[in-house]
Amino acid sequence: TPEPTIPEPTTPEPTIPEPTIPTPEPTIPEPTTPEPPPIST
After folding, report:
1. Verdict on whether the full-model pTM lies above 0.70
2. What does the DSSP assignment read for the chain?
3. How many whole angstroms separate alpha carbon 40 and alpha carbon 36?
4. Which residues of 2-33 are buried (b: 16+ CB within 10 A; e: fewer)?
5. Distance between CA 5 and CA 30 in Å, rounded?
6. What is the mean pLDDT of each run of 10 residues along the chain (41 residues)?
């Protein structure tokens, strides 16, 4: 009687979750509107 071939248990690779990098919102600087020069009448 031949010995039964026991299949080796397949160890599944652990699924490493990718680290969630928080994307910071870009700070949009408000456009600086230059004051108009005083009109000398």
Report:
1. no
2. -PPP-PPPP--PPP-PPPP----PPP--PPP-PPPPPPPP-
3. 12
4. eeeeeeeeeeeeeeeeeeeeeeeeeeeeeeee
5. 73
6. 85 85 81 81 74
